[in-house]
Amino acid sequence: MHYDVVVQMLEKEEAERTRRLAKKFQDFRDQKQQLKIGREFSLWDPDQVWKGLPTYLSYKTYHGPSSLQYFSEEDLDWATHLRMQQTQFRYDLERQQQEQQQAKVDEDCAGKQPSPPESET
């Protein structure tokens, strides 16, 4: 009798776990896999490129007829990315310099230490 209750509780817990996992999957699909976010296209439809909006109209800003169009892979936040790249480069350079200085200090300290006396056997 006791084992039946335990089995029922385990089955109920497993069903609840499965339900929560299915809910998480559905929430992910609803939030992250929307059609408007995706850039999927059909390989079998060569005219699909011309069916969508012009690239400059697909963005929120419009700069007028004399401006260049946005390209699909153009980096619209180029200045921020350049600053981040320069910051990362400076950080890496400073770290390399510190490592070189530390290696030099370690080498100098190793050179100044007297060698251990050789044991006579």
What does this protein look like?
- The radius of gyration is 32 Å and the shape is flat.
- It has 121 residues and is mostly helical.
- It has a domain at 1-38.
- The protein has helices at residues 2-32, 48-51, 78-112.
- Residues 93-121 are annotated as: Disordered.
- Belongs to the RIB43A family.
- Microtubule inner protein component of sperm flagellar doublet microtubules.
- It comes from Saguinus oedipus (Cotton-top tamarin).
- Tell me, rounded to a whole number, the average pLDDT: 77
Largest sheet descriptor: none
- What is the overall silhouette? flat
Number of strands: 0
Query: What is the string of helix and strand elements?
Result: HHH
Percent of residues in helices:
55-70%
Strand content: under 5%
Point out poorly predicted stretches. Answer: none
CA radius of gyration is: 32 Å
* Derived structural class: mainly alpha
DSSP helical segment count: 3
Q: Span from first to last CA?
A: 79 Å
Protein name: RIB43A-like with coiled-coils protein 1
Subunit structure: Microtubule inner protein component of sperm flagellar doublet microtubules.
Organism: Saguinus oedipus
Keywords: Cell projection, Cilium, Coiled coil, Cytoplasm, Cytoskeleton, Flagellum
